[in-house]
Description:
Chain A is an all-beta fold. Chain A is built from no helices and twelve strands. Chain A has strands spanning 3-6, 10-14, 19-21, 23-26, 33-38, 45-50, 56-58, 64-68, 73-78, 87-95, 97-100, 104-109. In chain A, strands 2, 5, 6, 10, 11 and 12 form a six-stranded mixed sheet that branches. Chain B is built from no helices and eleven strands. In chain B, a hairpin with a 2-residue loop joins strand 5 and strand 6 (54-57). Chain B is 0% helix and 50% strand.
Amino acid sequence: AQSVSQHNHHVILSEAASLELGCNYSYGGTVNLFWYVQYPGQHLQLLLKYFSGDPLVKGIKGFEAEFIKSKFSFNLRKPSVQWSDTAEYFCAVNAGKSTFGDGTTLTVKP
Amino acid sequence: EAQVTQNPRYLITVTGKKLTVTCSQNMNHEYMSWYRQDPGLGLRQIYYSMNVEATDKGDVPEGYKVSRKEKRNFPLILESPSPNQTSLYFCASSLLGTGNYEQYFGPGTRLTVT
């Protein structure tokens, strides 16, 4: 059975701090990995995705993620967060049946 | 504009009264899916569909039904809603195949069952 585990439930940072959100997955086939963001009161939007090739993928708004196959990990990073990054972040694996992590709430203090 | 629409956006109903939440996409996507979002539990997949007349159970299908008679529509049916189905529901769609499965989400339907 596929599963996704996000390590941090709530992260609080000051503006300009660096961010890393952990995600580990369990899936037996070819992975399609995603990070989605949900701003307060809004629906989910795609930040970035990985399915093959360069394990370091870049997304919107300065986010990037690194796929490490040996660790079954797909951690999200941003060098310098902004107040506007305050949101909930979800890691997901999808190959038909789709599994999301429980989410990480990021609060960025101005 | 490419989008996924859901109706209604908000619904308050009573236990046992059948309801349908509609979902429609205009992107010609093969894949459509329903999720429920509950605090601390992330998104859990209810049902998904890889194409017309092809539906499969997700992780929490009990108490829900779906149908996919047309490519663009994927309604969620609660035959006899119960209070534990109070939740925020999202519909999503995507193209199929490796490199795809990037889901576009609807605005959500907040359902309260009393």
